[in-house]
């Protein structure tokens, strides 16, 4: 990867602002990174709101975020004070007239929430709603009315990544249903039926409260893979589009004139991991079929925005963040080597007036907030200018079964004594989750496990094998009904490619991953003895038993082509337990005790088998955790155990 964050290019008449590539005044070095997320620009493009906080490297501490306001083009940051200093803010949304910002406040360890608003200067705070339950995704409508997704009396936080509620009593007797509601006079008025779980929505211009959104009946965590596109009006719902089982829907955005809706459609493995092709649907014609705006494009659309009077698709093209105009044939208007995102790990934008905002970063440059006209973003912040690069990084490509596959090679800036043996270094391959996801070029935070591996002297390889985003729908679907087979060939050939350009010791290879990456770790050690040590986080050992244990079995038929009861063989052929007697690789395993996506029995089954077969192993189940370590003490412990495991078997 180039040391400069931006890749200078003239694309579609737009160019990167020279200011972005120029050296900035260097402030005093920071001890910790200033984290910036969820930027939202006002409709008139004059203000931007963010969530910001200083990252904590102290054991047991996590980053506490607060709301920050800025006036564009270059106003000073204003921190918004609240009457609850320990509350967590979320769901930033600007009013239609750009005069007020609304957001959700939640006190620690409480299920109740409030919606508050402040003016554009961060003062005159008002409480709009106090609510016993979940609130998220605030959106102001054309007439200034505020809408929200709400769950009354929620048993837990929504989403399969959250820790599951205890399974006691009659199972499934009462489901949390997330509904669209409008806020007025301190009360909610429901705008969607009680028997539908609404995942996403957008206002539709016209009289009254009208919306378009994705929804499904029944269990909200499990049924997203079956969600349909609905129109909502007068509290009722009508199906606008029912996709095939192998297509999921994300990010519905209604055109400013209310006549059409665009959305992302593709094979997706997790809610919020949206990626695929961009589609548009005419809302003026009953039973209209969606039209694919990006057919056959060898890239993945991950965001949709109406910017500067144009429909803009954000996404991944190989290793690059890419932005297209989609009003006609897709046309690239901007590209960059780093990650440009307003929401997280995939390219997206927040647009208003003649500006857009996002957070930009890469492996060697810490995140900063940028804003400007499309493709000519200039930095609004320099908080992290003095944060050092903590790795060398480069993009690597290789060929596998006719595909061009991409990945990232990270190497330490300095080597620890004793880590180089005979001129060669040990390397850890980290396979991402999903599988429909991507290893993004994000700055390695203080608690990053990959940073800890680099600090310990290891090279780190991050492959994006088939099933990943970035090279179109055909590539993303290439592991369907073939988990672990073709994607493992891609990973192994990627390691071969790295060994041609980096002095990697093939006798000191390690493997790790979480979620689908944890599955790939468990699977790989049953297929090859090339790795000397492995660490599997939140993995899957047996697809057949997993089908009946997890809380989201709805994701499996789209990828396996059938339920386990209709085609058990296709599940068995990709199950590590089927080939368990081949394992020789020492494997450390960890998982959250309340993980609904990859429940602990899967890790226990793999651990039990390795113990029985006398393969060195260790299992840690972290109390209260869902799919991922939310408690920093647990994450620090898992990271320390991971480093110790690799040190023992790769350096010992």
Brief overview, please?
The protein is built from ten helices and 39 strands.
Instruction: Quote the beta fraction.
Output: 35-45%
Number of helical stretches of at least 4 residues: 10
CA-based shape: globular
Termini separation = 32 Å
* Spatial extent as radius of gyration: 24 Å
State the secondary-structure class: mainly beta
Low-pLDDT ranges: 1-27
How would a textbook summarize the main sheet? 9 strands, mixed
Strand elements, count = 39
Give average pLDDT, whole number: 91
What is the share of helical residues?
Answer: 10-25%
Write up this protein.
The protein is mostly beta strands and 652 residues long. The chain has ten helices and 39 strands. The strands form eight sheets. Strands 31, 32, 33, 34, 35, 36, 37, 38 and 39 form a nine-stranded mixed β-sheet that branches. A seven-stranded antiparallel β-sheet has the order 7-8-9-10-11-12-13, with no helix packed on it. The protein is globular and about 70 Å long. The two termini are 32 Å apart. Mean pLDDT is 91; it is low at 1-27.
